[in-house]
Amino acid sequence: MLRLDKIVLREISLPLKEPFRISSGVETVRRILLLELHDRDGAHVWAECVAGALPNYTFETIDTAWLAIREWLAPRLLGQAVDGAAEVHARLATNIRGHAMAKAALEMGCWALEAVQRGRPLSRHLGGARHGLRDAVPTGISLGLQATPAALVERAEAAVAAGYQKVKLKIEPGRDVAFVQAVRAAVGPAIELMADANAAYTLEDAAHHAALRALDAYNLLMLEQPLGADELLGLATLQAELTTALCLDESITDRGRAKAMLALQSGRIINIKPGRVGGFTESLAIHDLCAAARPAVPVWCGGMLESGIGRAYNVALASLPNFSLPGDLSPSARYWARDVVTPEWTMNAEGLVPVPTTVPGLGVEVDTDFIDAITTRMEVVSNPAVAVAVA
Ligand code: OSB
Ligand code: MG
């Protein structure tokens, strides 16, 4: 039983070590929305909303999420008895369209709160009775767009040397074939390489189409989201032309979209980001749907440049058995000079990130002093649902 009596929203500002550029925009200082969920029984957890500063990846932003949580979503939980975390998704989704990242932050926080209440690590609480939960998850790196192939090659070689099990290259029209070719030549045929276009191409442009076809020659593990999020038909056309498996990210906003992908054969792999699909209940549904498909559709856990708090949720999800490909789960030091958790997230030389399996909840301590120092705004939403600005 959950009964939230206070939700604290905070924005923190965390500078990336290096700007991260994708086809639709660049992040230099990550503005991150963190939540603290307090249950009436005294249990307390931190959660993270993965929305960015600008509506380039999806239409959600940190500001729309803040509004949605305060005005519409938090009031659906505060002061109310909820049987369990599995019930929260439906509560938040009914008659509130969209705002998946805002919903997910609250919903995933409820899963963690329930894990704390039951004294279980989040991974084991989420996994439930499933067999094959892992103690360490394989990770890949996502490399942002670079000015030259040489700059990308340098980063890809460093990633391989660090032990990453997969190297993902961001691409866009004009920065694609030559960049992928250079990296493939540098790292050799045995490295798992993939490209992610973040929806930058259209089949209506002959040059775009030709570039996507040309990428088929580099033995990519997959090509992620080459076309627009709503282009399931175009993606099916493209998939039929290519040997390379398409992986969908932006297109998969809920289990219905996953079913449509399977039916239309718009792709063969799904990148599950729990924030993008509205939380863990929907992530588990997509995971199970893909595991049951024939042939089974592999899934892997994507990333959104999360802080160490969001990372805890992703690592727990990625410990599920059908997360059979390396996730974008880089350790803290890849992004930040200092992370907001202790211990920071690490990866060993085999590219494995350990899954916390002993401590209840997230499995890392949140560094509240550091968070206080980098907080730029804060608001308490409490029961009764009265919003009070405190900073
Ligand atoms: O498309 O996977 C993506 C970051 C921001 C927005 C979209 C994406 C990404 C990444 C980063 O690829 C992965 C990471 O968190 O390391
Ligand atoms: Mg992506």
What report would you give on this structure?
The chain is of the alpha/beta class and 391 residues long. The chain folds into 2 domains: 4-120 and 365-389, 2-Layer Sandwich (Enolase-like, domain 1), CATH 3.30.390.10; 125-354, Enolase-like C-terminal domain (TIM Barrel). 34% of the residues lie in helices and 23% in strands. It has 13 helices and 16 strands. The chain has helices spanning 62-73, 88-93, 100-117, 122-127, 149-162, 177-187, 206-214, 232-241, 255-264, 280-292, 308-318, 332-335, 368-374, and strands at 4-22, 25-39, 44-49, 136-143, 167-170, 193-196, 222-224, 246-248, 269-272, 299-301, 327-328, 341-342, 352-354, 365-366, 375-382, 386-389. The strands form 3 sheets. Strands 4, 5, 6, 7, 8, 9, 10, 11 and 13 form a 9-stranded mixed beta sheet that branches. Helix 1 (62-73) crosses helix 3 (100-117), helix 5 (149-162) runs parallel beside helix 6 (177-187) and helix 9 runs parallel beside helix 10. The protein is globular, with a radius of gyration of 20 Å. 2-succinylbenzoate binds at residues 22, 57, 142, 196, 198, 249, 302-305, 328, 330. The site of 2-succinylbenzoate has 12 residues, from loops.
